[in-house]
């Protein structure tokens, strides 16, 4: 791989500063308007509009990795001895989630194939609610329709992030200004920030150990151990807002160079296919609540297939049993990434 030239470096810097500026404007406007989780949804929506207008944005890889590490530490700091009271339920809730994944994949693939007009491989790959980067890449290598598959996954993640927080807050009667699990205890300096340089490097160790999502899991485990020892990290509000901004802007920037014809044509099917997926997830959450007694709000965030880091962060920000939610979201990611090549070869033949 050739080293970057001065021209490409200047372009990267320009895209980064544009992304950061757009994120700040979007987050500031959303905060002023009282939108829930303003520093994620505002940058996401602003970056999406700018990207659709043909202006490229990008966040450097170290910032994206660091933001996932921040999410991991935020989750780990929520671990207390009481967190493990429901561990005995996890195998049963995991089985329900797996059955739900099977059902939502079948129903969504049927929609894409029968109504959306997708070829079989594209329909199956678009219906698997896994990572937005991994499954489309595998499917495209196998011959799937790239734009259709990518847009379907992008619509799912974007719709979940933009719709779930406002609906949840309206349902629970929460303050729209809420940005974290316990904001009243936070200040501009945070608490126990010495944990940051201790926990963040744990991502490299997690990668050496081949753990899933190492940049998030390593810091999460480290912060959890320290939390159980009585050292609970509280991120300052500005740092948490920056983490939201990076995640939201990164999602919005994925809409760059997406043709209007694709958005109008495939986009409506991607939207309706996502609604089929979400409706199935809600049904699974209701069953989990009825059978196992898991609070409905917790079950919903555990089974709704958004992005892994984003759903974990939403659980922490909304104060909804983030460890339970993260466990199920990680299990979904591992299962789908491991099974996707087999499933696509078995059921995705044209």
UniProtKB/TrEMBL annotation:
UniProt-listed Pfam families: AbrB (PF05145)
Q: Where are the transmembrane segments?
A: 16-35, 90-112, 149-168, 213-232, 238-257, 269-292, 298-318, 330-348
Q: Mind listing the UniProt keywords for this protein, alphabetically?
A: Membrane, Transmembrane, Transmembrane helix
Q: What is this protein called?
A: AbrB family transcriptional regulator
The opening ranks of the lineage are: Bacteria, Pseudomonadati, Pseudomonadota, Gammaproteobacteria, Oceanospirillales
């Amino acid at each position: 791989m050739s080293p970057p030239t001065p021209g490409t470096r200047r372009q990267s810097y320009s895209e980064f500063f544009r992304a950061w500026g757009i994120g700040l404007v979007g987050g500031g406007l959303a905060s002023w308007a009282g939108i829930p989780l303003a520093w994620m949804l505002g940058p996401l929506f602003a970056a999406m509009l700018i990207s659709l207008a043909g202006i490229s944005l990008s966040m450097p890889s170290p910032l994206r990795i660091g933001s996932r590490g921040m999410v991991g530490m935020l989750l780990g700091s929520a671990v207390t001895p009481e967190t493990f009271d429901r561990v005995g339920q996890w195998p049963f809730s995991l089985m329900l989630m797996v059955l739900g994944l099977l059902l939502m994949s079948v129903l969504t693939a049927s929609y894409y194939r029968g109504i959306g007009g997708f070829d079989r491989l594209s329909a199956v790959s678009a219906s698997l609610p896994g990572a937005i980067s991994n499954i489309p890449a595998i499917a495209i290598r196998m011959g799937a329709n790239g734009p259709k598959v990518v847009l379907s996954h992008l619509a799912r993640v974007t719709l979940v992030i933009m719709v779930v927080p406002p609906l949840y807050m309206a349902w629970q009667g929460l303050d729209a200004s809420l940005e974290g699990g316990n904001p009243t205890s936070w200040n501009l300096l945070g608490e126990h920030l010495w944990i940051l340089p201790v926990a963040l490097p744990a991502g490299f160790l997690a990668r050496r150990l081949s753990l899933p999502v190492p940049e998030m899991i390593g810091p999460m485990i480290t912060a959890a151990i320290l939390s159980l020892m009585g050292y609970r990290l509280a991120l300052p509000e500005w740092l948490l807002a920056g983490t939201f901004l990076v995640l939201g802007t990164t999602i919005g920037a994925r809409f760059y160079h997406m043709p209007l014809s694709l958005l109008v044509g495939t986009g409506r099917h991607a939207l309706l296919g996502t609604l089929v997926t979400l409706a199935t997830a809600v049904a699974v959450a209701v069953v989990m609540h009825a059978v196992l007694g898991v609070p409905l709000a917790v079950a919903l965030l555990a089974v709704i297939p958004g992005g892994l880091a984003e759903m974990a962060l939403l659980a922490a920000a909304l104060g909804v049993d983030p460890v339970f939610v993260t466990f199920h979201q990680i299990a979904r990611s591992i299962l789908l990434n491991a099974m996707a090549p087999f499933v696509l070869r078995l059921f995705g033949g044209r």
